[in-house]
Amino acid sequence: LLRRPDPEAAAAQLCPGRLDPPTRWTADLHPIRAYQAIDPTRLSLAGYDDFHAIPDASLEAAIEGVVDAEGPVHFDTLADRLLAAADVGRLGSRIRERIEARLQALSATPDLSQRGGFVARPAQFLKPPYRDWREAPEKTRRLEAVSDEELMLALFRAVLDGNANDAETAMNAGIHAIGFTRLTD
Asked: 22 CB contacts (<8 Å, ≥6 apart)?
């Protein structure tokens, strides 16, 4: 907090570090925005006779494209986008193994990480987007597809907005705000 800000200062000078990449979980205070699913045709995986014929570099670029657009993204959602892009109907064990192998290779770099069943850029885990899941594709619109970091943000926003008299009310208000029905037992 700057007690005597420079009257000529603007943006980052008034809040030092505001533009730096997050180093710990940070709440997104922007207005809620619609969930944006990537168009599978943008992933450039079409035209191969077999999913295993896709070059590793192309598959890794497609994985990064999905993560950039939808991260943190659940593995099932990621696989669904890749299969749609490659015009493959079903996720078999061999295809799952291939995707997991490419994810493992990408996770060995500092650019991508996995937590539980989710894949994201490290900054996406630290500052998850505040998204309205009502706009997500039907197969994606599941509470299980929302990362813990994003659920924590929904809870934080519910408390911040004053919609929380107790923990259960806060959880229900948080998930309702991002497009899901109330929690049940």
From this structure: 123, 126, 127
Say if residue 18's pLDDT is above 70: no
The residues that bridge with 113 in the sheet, in sequence order, are: 120
Beta-bridged to residue 73, according to DSSP, are 119
Of the candidates 51, 35, 34, 32, which has an alpha carbon nearest to the alpha carbon of residue 43? 51
C-alpha 133/C-alpha 113 separation (Å) is 23
Residue positions counted in the chain: 185
116-159 residue pLDDT tens: 999 999 999 999 999 999 989 999 999 999 999 999 999 999 99
Are residues 102 and 51 in contact, defined by beta-carbon separation less than 8 angstroms?
no
CB burial of 162-171 (b: ≥16 within 10 Å; e: otherwise) equals eebeeeeebb
Helix (H, G, I), strand (E, B) or coil at 131: strand
Picking from 87, 121, 83, the residue whose alpha carbon sits closest to that of residue 99 is 83
CA distance 101 to 83: 16
Coil/strand/helix, residue 1: coil
Cα(120)–Cα(66) distance, integer angstroms: 9
> What is the four-CA torsion angle of 175, 107, 109, 94, rounded to 10 degrees?
-140
33 contacts 130 by C-beta, under 8 angstroms: yes
